[in-house]
Q: What sequence folds into this?
């Protein structure tokens, strides 16, 4: 078991958005999160990544199991592709970046500054960062935005390789990645009334 | 950790003006003062320690909002917060990088500006020493202020308002050490007190700043 | 019978119910103390043999200066309670106290200047104590500005609490630094346990009454403002519920 979410409720800006979510991720699992815009997919992913505390429920995962991939790629415009990636590899204490560059077809671009990349290339670099984290659970927020069909294919291959190697992925996306996956529709877990643990005291 | 530090330095160098801007500001403030108070060299010499310290402090203030803001906007701060490095360490490294790009050049340039203001010869050693010991505190306190205001749209002005009162003790002891030194009095006491503040700041503020960052990232 | 815990008053509803009863009494008591203390002090004490009638500003200056510091201390305690126990009333009380504290600081600075003018021949002197109050004023400004700038009320409460704790340490440091920097003109402490060496009983009693009046006024104002803050939060919570359907 890599990640177990039990009866989780989470809030955005003090307003509860999701409640009573439970799921588990074992090695090899891909779980796709679906739901309309604003339904709380990003909030859920941020909560699982540990950036914000849940308002109720438990998240069980080993320390440092989750690698978070946000909307923003966290790239530095004046650093080259290789430098950006090497920085994160250093932070996570993992080795080389060559495999990550190859997986997202960035070898040709490795000396180019990130500011001179196209939106899709930047995204590929942002996703390549996941490979250098060396973490088993990927929590990804709309990873395929601005990717073309070929790049989506590269991404799907990367996820497939990752879960085949004993990892798991939690992906919020609207498109069909062609992966063998389970689907969790979060709109079924929308918080009904604001049982806001914070503001409720004032009602 | 070291990587974060060297990345920030690289970024400061490549962004251009990383080192230069604060220095240029320091120079301009120092040059403007004689225009304001008159060219009487004796008077300038008397107020030089204060001017140099206030100038250095304002120059430090200029680049504070960049400590976390850029990383916040491009998403790296989120990623750093989920990475296997303690946020306190991130704060330390960011403050250190800020010091190397502003505090250190200011310290090295200060004697030249001391000449312009006719600082007494005995004061130069104390000037460099006091700035070298005091500017790390300015960077660390600034990093704390930057952490408090990182999520705000117009955080820059608020940042100054929050940070400047916190600079008072360092400024008082720093300027006092230089002016005592310049007039031949014993200057070790204020210098030691200021060093104590710097050490205390470096030891404790990373925790407060990391707490503020966590709150802002929530 | 269930034992009442002090923390029960941290529940907004309980707080509102209790203060609804208590507040009028405190307000009336504050008014009585202020009127008695100030009238007594201004009109029924003799002029000082050195300072003449200017000394009578002491009845405004000393209590407001005391409360300026105590208001910050109260904010510090309330901030700590908020960070440790997450009681909303505590955070809102800290927020409510800040503008009151600013006002007391301004009164202390202003009366200090009015007092200093005939005594020292200048409206403003960089005397350590006056300077410390000026710095305290800046700390208050930063604190209030941070509250205003942050939108999410709980984030604002957290950030201002951290600022309040760090600010307290630095305010204390500034106090010592300023002392070191300029040994001032200020007369020694007016109040201390050993009052023999300070001021005579005839000035002392009305001063005590005036101080009591200021303390009660502070409590009344903070309670009143906290009630307003709670109502604003309740309104916010209701609107939120409305929107969520």
A:
């Amino acid at each position: 078991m890599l990640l177990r979410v039990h009866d989780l409720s989470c809030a955005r800006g003090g307003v509860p958005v999701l409640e009573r979510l439970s799921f588990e991720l074992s090695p090899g699992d891909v779980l796709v999160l679906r739901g309309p815009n604003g339904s709380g997919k990003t909030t859920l992913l941020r909560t699982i990544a540990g950036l914000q505390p849940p308002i109720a429920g438990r998240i069980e995962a080993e320390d440092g199991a989750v690698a978070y991939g946000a909307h923003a790629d966290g790239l530095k415009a004046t650093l080259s592709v290789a430098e950006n990636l090497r920085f994160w590899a250093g932070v996570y204490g993992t080795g080389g970046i060559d495999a990550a560059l190859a997986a997202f077809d960035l070898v040709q671009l490795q000396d180019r500054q990130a500011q001179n990349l196209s939106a899709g290339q930047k995204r590929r670099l942002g996703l390549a960062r996941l490979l250098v984290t060396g973490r088993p659970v990927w929590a990804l927020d709309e990873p395929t935005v601005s990717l073309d069909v070929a790049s989506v294919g590269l991404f799907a291959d990367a996820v497939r390789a990752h879960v085949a190697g004993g990892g798991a992925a939690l992906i919020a996306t609207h498109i069909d990645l062609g992966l063998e996956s389970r689907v969790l529709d979060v709109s079924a877990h929308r918080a009904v009334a604001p049982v806001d643990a914070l503001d409720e005291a004032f009602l | 950790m070291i990587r974060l530090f060297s990345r920030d330095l690289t970024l400061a160098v490549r962004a251009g003006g990383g080192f230069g801007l604060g220095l240029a500001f320091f120079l301009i403030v120092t040059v403007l003062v004689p225009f304001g108070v008159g060219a009487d060299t004796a008077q300038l010499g008397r107020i030089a320690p204060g001017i140099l310290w206030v100038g250095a402090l304002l120059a430090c203030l200029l680049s504070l909002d960049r400590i976390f803001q850029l990383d916040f906007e491009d998403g790296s701060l989120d990623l750093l917060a989920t990475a296997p490095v303690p946020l306190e360490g991130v704060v330390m490294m960011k403050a250190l990088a800020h010091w190397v790009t502003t505090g250190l050049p200011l310290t090295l340039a200060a004697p030249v500006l001391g000449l312009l203001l006719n600082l007494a010869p005995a004061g130069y050693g104390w000037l460099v020493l006091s700035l070298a010991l005091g500017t790390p505190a300015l960077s660390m306190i600034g990093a704390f202020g930057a952490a408090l205001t990182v999520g705000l749209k117009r955080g820059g002005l608020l940042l100054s308002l929050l940070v400047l009162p916190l600079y008072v003790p360092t400024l008082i002891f720093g300027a006092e050490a230089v002016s005592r030194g310049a007039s031949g009095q014993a200057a070790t006491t204020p210098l030691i007190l200021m060093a104590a503040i710097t050490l205390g700041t470096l030891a404790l503020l990373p925790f407060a700043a990391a707490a503020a960052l966590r709150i802002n990232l929530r | 019978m269930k034992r009442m815990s002090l923390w029960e008053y941290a529940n907004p509803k309980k707080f509102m119910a209790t203060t609804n009863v208590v507040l009028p009494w405190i307000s009336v008591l504050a008014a009585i103390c202020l009127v008695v203390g100030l009238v007594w002090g201004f009109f029924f004490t003799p002029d000082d043999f050195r300072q003449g009638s200017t000394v009578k500003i002491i009845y405004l200056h000393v209590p407001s200066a005391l409360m300026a510091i105590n208001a910050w201390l109260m904010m510090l305690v309330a901030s700590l309670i908020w960070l440790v126990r997450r009681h909303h009333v505590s955070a809102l009380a800290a927020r409510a106290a800040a503008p009151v504290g600013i006002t007391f600081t301004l009164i202390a600075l202003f009366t200090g200047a009015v007092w200093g003018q005939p005594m020292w021949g200048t409206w403003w002197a960089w005397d350590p104590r006056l300077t410390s109050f000026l710095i305290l004023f800046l700390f208050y400004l930063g604190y209030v500005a941070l509250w205003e700038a942050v939108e999410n009320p709980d984030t604002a409460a957290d950030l201002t609490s951290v600022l309040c704790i760090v600010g307290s340490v630095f305010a204390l440091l500034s106090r010592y630094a300023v002392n070191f920097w300029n040994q001032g003109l200020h007369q020694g402490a007016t109040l201390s346990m050993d009052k023999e060496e300070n001021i005579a009983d005839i000035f002392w009693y009305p001063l005590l009454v005036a101080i009591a009046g200021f303390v009660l006024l502070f409590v009344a104002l903070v309670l009143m403002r906290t009630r307003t803050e709670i109502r604003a939060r309740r309104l916010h919570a209701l609107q939120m519920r409305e929107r969520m359907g």
